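Project outcomes to date are best conveyed with an example. Our students and postdoctoral researchers have been running inverse folding experiments weekly, and each run begins with a structure described purely in C-alpha cells. The record below, which covers 569 residues, was selected by the lab manager from last quarter's runs and is presented without edits.
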C-alpha cells in the first residue's frame, strides 16, 4: 500500500442502534438492599440500595463495544457508588441530590451477549428505578493549538504541544516523589528512590515525575531542611527536563498567615496540626473582589510571588513544567476548598494572574483539578487552564480505565481540554483505557517513600506490561526537548525505531509527521483511526462512513504496528 495513492477502505464496524431497559425491582439485591413496590415509576417499583448492592444480570449487547449506561435514580443528598461491569470495577459514579427521579449516565464496555452490571456500595442510599443501555456516540476532542498562557516560552509551547498531540493515542507514565533525604541535590532524577522504585518494578523509568512545594511556604519555610527539600525538587525538575522528561508541580500550600505549619482543616487533620485560615477574609465583604489591604490577601500574594520565583528560575534555564495549583478543588480537607466554588475560582484566577501577568511566569502548562462533584461549579474559566484532571485512588490491583470519570470531565469541558489522572494508586491498564476510549494524558501514582503504599498497589507484572507497551510513554521513549519541534508527531514503530517522516499540513493547527510505509507482508488489521491532529475517532474500523478528508490510520501488519495518512474521497 503506497502513501501516494488514495485509500478507500470498506466495512466500518458499528454497534447496532438499540436501547434496552432493565427494571430495578427485577435486579438481584444483596447486603441490605430491598425492593419497594410503588406507583408512578417504571414497572411495579424500584430498588432501594441503602447500604447494599444492586446487580443487573442478563444485560444484553448485540456486539462487543462501548455503550451508554443510564441509571434512573433518586437520592436525598449527594452520594457516590462503585460501578462494576462483568465483575470488574468500571469507576465511581456520582449521584447528585434530587427529590425527583433523575438520570446519571456513564460509558460501559460490554461483551457480545449477556453482561452483568452492578452498583456496589461506597456511599449508598440511592433508589434505582431502572437502568437502560443505549448506543454510545463518541464526541471528538477540539483542543486549542496553543497553551492558555499568552506568549508562552518555547519550552512551554513544546510541552503543551507534546501533551496535545499524544492525547488519545498514548499515555505518559509518571510517579510522585515524597522523601528527598536520600536524593542528592542536582543528581540524576533516576537516583531518586521513588523513580528508581518504578524501574525496579518495571525495568523502565517514568517520563513524568511529580514534585511538591510542600515545604516552600509556611512558618518554617526558611529553615535549612525545608529550603533544602525545595531546592532538591527544583534540581530534580531541571535534570528531568534535560533528560527529556516532564516535571509536574503540586503545592500543598501552608497557612498563608504563617500561624500554623499546616494545609489541612481541622476535620481532615486526623488529630494533627491544622489551619483555620479562611481565605474569604481576603475579599471585600459579600463579594469576590479582593481587599488588597487585608492581612489575608497580603499573605496569599506573598506566597504566590515566592512560588513564582522558583518557576522563574526554571524559566531562566528554559525548563517548562506542569503546574497543578489548588488541587482537589471542592474536597473539604484543604483550606482553599472550604468556601464556595465562586470564591475558589477567584483564588485560582488570582494565582494565575499574579504569576503570569505580574511576575511574568510563562513556562507552565496549567491544570484545573476538581473533585468529581465540583467540576462545573468550581471552574475558574477555560482561559485559565490547559488540562482538567482528577485524582482517583482505587483498590489494590484495580486497573479499570475509570472511563466514567473521564467521560464526565470530557463532557463538562465540551471536549476542549486535555484530561489527566494526576493522582492515583493502581495504574489504569493501557488495554482497558483504549478499549473504553478513556486514554488519560498521563497518570501519576503517589509515592512509595515515607511509607507510601501506592506503587505497590500495581503488581510488577502489570507495571512491566504497561511500561513496555508502545502506547505508554516512558523516559526512553521521549523524543528529547532539543529535538522535538512543537506541532509534530514522530511515528515510532513497535520495534522502537523511528519511521522515515513526511509532513502534512493541517490548516495551521500543526503538522503530523508519519512514516512512509514500504510494502509489508501479512494481513493488515486496522486498530485505530485518528484525525490529523492525532485525536482518536474509532477503533477496529475502516474509513467507510467517515467524512471525506485526511485521516491517520494505525494498523497491525504481521508483528509490526504501522501508521500512515489515509485519504477518504
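After processing, the design step wrote out the following sequence:
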Amino acid at each position: 500500500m503506497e502513501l501516494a495513492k488514495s485509500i478507500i477502505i470498506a466495512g466500518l464496524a458499528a454497534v447496532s442502534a438499540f436501547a434496552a431497559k432493565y427494571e430495578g425491582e427485577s435486579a438481584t439485591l444483596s447486603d441490605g438492599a430491598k425492593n419497594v413496590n410503588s406507583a408512578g415509576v417504571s414497572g411495579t417499583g424500584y430498588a432501594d440500595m441503602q447500604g447494599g448492592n444492586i446487580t443487573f444480570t442478563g444485560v444484553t449487547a448485540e456486539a462487543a463495544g462501548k455503550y451508554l449506561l443510564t441509571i434512573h435514580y433518586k437520592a436525598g443528598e449527594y452520594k457516590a457508588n462503585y460501578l462494576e461491569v462483568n465483575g470488574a470495577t468500571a469507576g465511581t459514579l456520582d449521584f447528585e441530590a434530587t427529590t425527583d427521579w433523575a438520570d446519571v449516565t456513564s460509558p460501559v464496555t460490554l461483551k457480545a451477549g449477556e453482561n452483568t452490571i452492578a452498583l456496589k456500595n461506597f456511599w449508598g442510599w440511592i433508589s434505582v428505578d431502572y437502568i437502560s443501555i443505549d448506543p454510545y456516540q463518541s464526541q471528538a476532542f477540539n483542543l486549542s493549538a496553543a497553551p492558555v498562557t499568552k506568549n508562552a516560552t518555547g519550552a512551554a509551547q513544546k510541552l503543551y504541544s507534546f501533551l496535545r498531540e499524544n492525547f488519545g493515542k498514548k499515555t505518559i507514565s509518571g510517579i510522585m516523589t515524597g522523601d528527598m533525604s536520600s536524593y542528592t541535590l542536582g543528581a540524576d532524577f533516576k537516583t531518586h528512590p521513588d523513580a528508581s522504585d518504578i524501574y525496579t518494578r518495571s525495568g523502565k523509568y517514568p517520563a513524568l515525575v511529580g514534585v511538591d512545594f510542600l515545604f516552600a511556604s509556611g512558618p518554617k519555610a526558611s529553615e535549612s531542611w525545608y529550603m533544602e527539600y525545595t531546592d532538591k525538587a527544583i534540581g530534580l525538575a531541571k535534570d528531568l527536563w534535560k533528560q527529556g522528561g516532564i516535571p509536574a508541580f503540586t503545592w500543598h500550600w501552608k497557612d498563608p498567615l504563617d500561624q500554623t505549619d499546616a494545609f489541612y482543616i481541622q476535620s481532615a487533620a486526623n488529630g494533627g496540626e491544622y489551619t483555620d485560615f479562611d481565605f474569604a477574609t481576603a475579599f471585600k465583604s459579600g463579594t469576590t473582589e479582593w481587599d488588597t489591604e487585608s492581612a489575608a490577601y497580603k499573605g496569599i500574594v506573598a506566597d504566590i510571588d515566592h512560588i513564582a520565583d522558583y518557576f522563574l528560575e526554571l524559566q531562566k534555564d528554559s525548563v517548562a513544567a506542569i503546574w497543578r495549583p489548588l488541587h482537589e478543588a471542592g474536597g473539604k480537607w484543604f483550606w482553599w476548598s472550604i468556601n464556595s466554588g465562586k470564591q475558589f475560582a477567584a483564588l485560582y484566577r488570582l494565582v494565575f494572574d499574579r504569576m503570569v501577568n505580574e511576575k511574568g511566569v510563562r513556562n507552565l502548562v496549567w491544570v484545573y483539578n476538581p473533585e468529581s462533584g465540583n467540576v462545573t461549579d468550581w471552574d475558574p474559566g477555560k482561559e485559565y487552564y490547559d488540562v482538567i484532571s482528577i485524582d482517583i485512588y482505587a483498590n489494590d490491583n484495580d486497573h479499570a480505565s475509570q472511563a466514567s470519570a473521564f467521560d464526565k470531565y470530557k463532557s463538562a469541558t465540551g471536549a476542549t481540554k486535555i484530561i489527566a489522572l494526576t493522582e492515583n494508586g493502581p495504574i489504569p491498564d493501557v488495554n482497558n483505557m483504549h478499549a473504553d476510549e478513556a486514554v488519560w494524558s498521563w497518570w501519576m501514582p503517589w509515592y512509595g517513600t515515607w511509607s507510601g503504599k501506592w506503587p505497590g498497589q500495581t503488581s510488577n507484572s502489570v507495571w512491566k506490561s504497561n511500561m513496555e507497551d508502545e502506547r505508554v510513554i516512558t523516559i526512553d521513549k521521549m523524543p528529547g526537548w532539543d529535538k522535538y519541534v512543537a506541532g509534530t508527531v514522530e511515528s515510532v514503530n513497535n520495534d522502537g525505531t523511528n519511521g522515515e517522516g513526511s509532513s502534512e499540513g493541517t490548516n495551521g493547527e500543526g503538522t503530523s509527521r508519519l512514516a512512509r510505509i514500504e510494502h509489508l507482508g501479512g494481513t493488515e488489521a486496522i486498530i485505530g483511526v485518528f484525525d490529523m491532529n492525532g485525536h482518536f475517532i474509532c477503533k477496529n474500523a475502516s474509513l467507510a462512513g467517515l467524512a471525506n478528508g485526511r485521516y491517520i490510520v494505525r494498523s497491525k501488519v504481521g508483528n509490526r504496528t504501522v501508521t500512515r495518512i489515509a485519504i477518504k474521497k
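The CA atoms of residues 224 and 230 lie 10 Å apart. Residues 1-17, 488-521 have pLDDT under 50 and may be disordered. The training component of this project remains on track.
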